[in-house]
Amino acid sequence: MPGSVEPLNTNKRMQEISIELQIASRNYPLRVSQSEAESALMAAELINQKLKDFEERYGVRDIQDLFAMSALQIATQLIDLEKQGFAYHDQVTQRLKALENMVDDVLKDQ
Predict the structure, then answer these.
(1) Residue 8 class from Cβ within 10 Å (0-12 exposed, 13-18 middle, 19+ buried)?
(2) Distance from C-alpha of 9 to C-alpha of 42, rounded to nearest angstrom
(3) The total number of structural domains that make up the chain
(4) Integer Cα distance of 77 and 38 in angstroms
(5) Are 44 and 74 in contact (CB under 8 A)?
C-alpha cells in the first residue's frame, strides 16, 4: 500500500493532515493540506508502479537507476503535458481575440 492518511490534531494547522507514503518499501511521513493528500498518495502509487515496470521490463535491480529512469519518464510526461496546455491556451487566446475583433466590427457598424 502506498500510504495512509491520518488527521493532524493541531489548532495552528487545522487544514493540514499527516500522511505516510510508502515508496520503494520505505516510509515517508508528510504533512500536507487535505487538498494535496489524494495527489500525494496517487503520486506514490505512480512512482511505485514506474519502479516496478522498469524493473520488470529491463531487469534493472539498482534502486537508484530505477528512480532515475522513473523520474526521467515522469518529468518528460509532465513537460509534454505542459506543452500541450500552453498550445491549447494559445489556441483559446487566438480564438478569443478573433471573437473580440468580430464583436468590435459589429459594434462599429451600429
Answers:
(1) middle
(2) 24
(3) 1
(4) 20
(5) no
* pTM check: above 0.90: no
Pairing status of strand 16-23 against strand 26-33? antiparallel
Reported as a single tens digit per residue, the pLDDT across 8-19 is: 554 445 589 999
| Site of grid cell 500552453 | 86
For residue 61, what are the domain limits?
3-109
Residue 46: per-residue pLDDT: 96
- What cell numbers appear for 30 in the block? 508528510
Q: Which of 50, 41, 51 is nearest to 1 (CA)?
A: 41
> What's the average pLDDT block by block, 10 residues per block, for the chain (110 residues)?
56 78 96 96 96 96 96 95 89 89 85
Gap between the Cα atoms of 87 and 22, Å rounded: 36
